[in-house]
């Protein structure tokens, strides 16, 4: 019973971390909006199961790295409130990791949604 309650408590801490990041980080809110748009497009364009998996992986990767970025920012602010070369290196590298995932998700978006969107457009436009 105690094991269960500690398991459930650890989930609640994890959800609190996600909620805090959404509340405080503008970039996280942009990622959430982009994820909603991608999921609506996936449904509308009826993309394949494999492509849906790619979209889910991209969303999870960006969300996870933004959460880690927020954790690193908070840790650096605590450890080094004054400016320091290594504090800058840590924050810049964390931000870079989010950028890499965001670029990858744009590439996945073009790969997955590009062909069906072109198909819809060509069906709508007069020949
Ligand atoms: N303690 C510090 N020492 C040196 N450079 C820092 C320090 N804190 C921040 N910086 C520099 O300023 C940049 C922006 O830092 P900041 O903490 O404002 O993060 P942010 O990406 O703007 O996120 P947020 O707006 O959510 O706080 C960092 O990427 C880093 O280059």
Write structural notes for this entry.
With 127 residues, this protein is mostly helical. It has a single domain (2-124), classed as Helix Hairpins. It has helices spanning 2-24, 26-44, 49-79, 85-124. α3 (49-79) packs antiparallel against α4 (85-124). The longest helix is centred in the last third of the chain and has 40 residues, at 85-124. The structure holds adenosine-5'-triphosphate. Adenosine-5'-triphosphate binds at residues 25, 73, 80, 83-84, 87-88, 91-92, 95.
The total count of helices amounts to: 4
Using the 3D structure, state the CATH architecture.
Orthogonal Bundle
Q: Provide the gyration radius in Å.
A: 19 Å
Please identify the structural class as seen in this structure: mainly alpha
Low-confidence parts: none
Order of helices and strands: HHHH
Beta fraction: under 5%
Averaged pLDDT: 96
Fraction in helix: over 70%
The beta-strand count equals 0
Q: Quick one: biggest sheet?
A: none
Q: CATH topology, what is it called? A: Helix Hairpins
First-residue to last-residue Cα separation: 67 Å
Count of domains:
1
Hetero compounds:
adenosine-5'-triphosphate
Q: Briefly, what CATH class?
A: Mainly Alpha
Overall outline = flat
Primary descriptors:
127 residues; mainly alpha; Helix Hairpins; binds adenosine-5'-triphosphate
Task: Put the structure in a nutshell.
89% of the residues lie in helices and 0% in strands. The chain binds adenosine-5'-triphosphate (ATP).
Topology:
Blueprint: H1 2-24, H2 26-44, H3 49-79, H4 85-124
Helix pairs in contact: 1-2, 2-3, 3-4
The protein binds adenosine-5'-triphosphate (ATP).
């Amino acid at each position: 019973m105690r094991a269960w309650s500690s398991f459930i408590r650890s989930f609640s801490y994890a959800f609190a971390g996600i909620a805090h990041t959404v509340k405080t980080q503008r970039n996280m809110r942009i990622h959430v909006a982009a994820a909603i748009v991608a999921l609506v497009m996936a449904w509308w364009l009826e993309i394949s199961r494999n492509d849906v998996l790619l979209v889910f992986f991209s969303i999870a990767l960006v969300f996870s790295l933004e959460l880690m970025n927020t954790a690193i920012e908070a840790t650096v602010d605590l450890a080094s409130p004054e400016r320091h070369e290594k504090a800058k290196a840590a924050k810049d590298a964390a931000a870079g990791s989010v950028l890499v995932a965001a670029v990858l998700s744009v590439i996945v978006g073009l790969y997955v949604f590009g062909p069906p969107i072109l198909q819809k457009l060509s069906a709508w436009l007069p020949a």
